[in-house]
Specification:
The chain is an all-beta fold and 289 residues long. The protein has 2 domains: 4-12 and 199-287, Immunoglobulin-like (Sandwich); 30-192, Sandwich (Immunoglobulin-like), CATH 2.60.40. The protein has one helix at residues 30-36, and strands spanning 4-9, 64-66, 71-75, 87-94, 101-108, 117-119, 126-131, 136-141, 150-156, 163-172, 183-192, 208-212, 217-224, 228-236, 241-250, 253-260, 268-276, 279-287. A 6-stranded mixed sheet has the order 2-11-10-5-8-7, with no helix packed on it. It has a 4-stranded mixed sheet with strand order 1-16-13-12, with no helix packed on it. A hairpin with a 2-residue loop joins strand 17 (268-276) and strand 18. It starts with a strand and ends with a strand.
């Protein structure tokens, strides 16, 4: 007989992850850093909030918030489908901004490997960073770019990857010059290759998704083969993420999860992607209230 675990998940889990804007080549104390290096050289690599990346809670400790309604990442042509094997112009906008802002983003495939590469088109406002240990490339702001709240760049998309998820971390500073008060927004945005579909992958048969209009919640039945992390991402049909939760670590077993959805979601068709470790499960569901 299989074991069934039941846990109730709240509406919005705050992801415990922030990122630190400081030089990759020098070490600074918090006091020295905030007086002379605040946002000056962009975010160091691996601070985007993507799977497997560390955080910098010793700095920018004002708070970490769900940024899916604040970080607006758009393809130049609009929509959720990218052009495979070519350069896709993209724009990131921090809609809740300050006079001084920052960002870092990365594009990963379903195995959390780097998907494609980036080309800097705004030399004044953006630059590249990289992590050799993770094999990932990032786009981040420059010294002059931290006065912006909109940044543009080209993403050179892969040709044979179905879904690519961009993990974005933005920083709205309070200009206090201290280690507190800044707001870090974390979000994820998934774009699809129109020539490759994952909606019919066999592993999606391993989960069941149900929607309850009575309490505006999803019920997810899924297996965890070995101890692993679980995240939930809900997208509308335009590709915009309307709900994201990092649920934490799960032990091996079969689970039934109740996920309370945001009240702001309109009636319509959505796609929920459940990541168990690096393995994605995607299903469509309909919100009817």
């Amino acid at each position: 007989m299989k074991k069934i675990y039941f846990r109730v998940i709240g509406l919005a889990a705050i992801v415990s992850s922030t990122f630190l804007f400081m030089s990759n080549r020098a070490e600074y104390s918090v006091e020295t850093y905030h007086s002379s290096k605040l946002n000056s050289v962009g975010a160091p690599s691996a601070k985007s909030g993507a799977p497997g990346e560390s955080s910098c809670t010793e700095c920018h400790s004002g708070g970490t918030l769900d940024g899916n309604s604040v970080n607006e990442l758009l393809l130049a042509g609009g929509g959720n489908d990218y052009d495979p094997g070519t350069a896709n112009a993209m724009t990131l906008t921090l809609t809740d901004n300050s006079n001084k802002n920052g960002f870092q983003l990365v594009a990963l495939d379903e195995n959390d490997d780097m998907a494609g590469s980036f080309t800097i088109t705004d030399l004044a406002g953006t630059q590249l960073a990289s992590s050799s240990s993770l094999g990932r490339e990032y786009v981040t702001h420059t010294s002059s770019g931290n006065s912006q709240s909109m940044w543009s760049f080209d993403w050179n998309a892969p040709s044979n990857v179905a879904d690519v998820t961009f993990y974005v971390a933005t920083n709205k500073t309070d200009l206090s010059g201290s280690a507190t008060g800044d707001l870090i927004y974390l979000s994820s945005h998934t774009f699809s290759n129109p020539s490759v579909s994952v909606s019919e992958e066999s592993n999606n048969d391993e989960i069941q998704v149900g929607y309850s209009p009575e309490n505006h919640s999803l019920f997810l039945d899924f297996p965890v083969v070995s101890n692993n992390s679980v995240t939930v991402n809900v997208l509308d049909l335009s590709g915009k993420s309307v709900f994201f939760n990092n649920e934490g670590q799960f032990v091996a077993g079969d689970y039934t999860e109740k996920v309370r959805l945001p009240e702001s979601m309109d009636n319509g068709i959505y796609v929920v992607t459940l990541f168990v470790g690096n393995r994605p499960y995607s299903k469509k569901f309909i919100v009817t209230r």
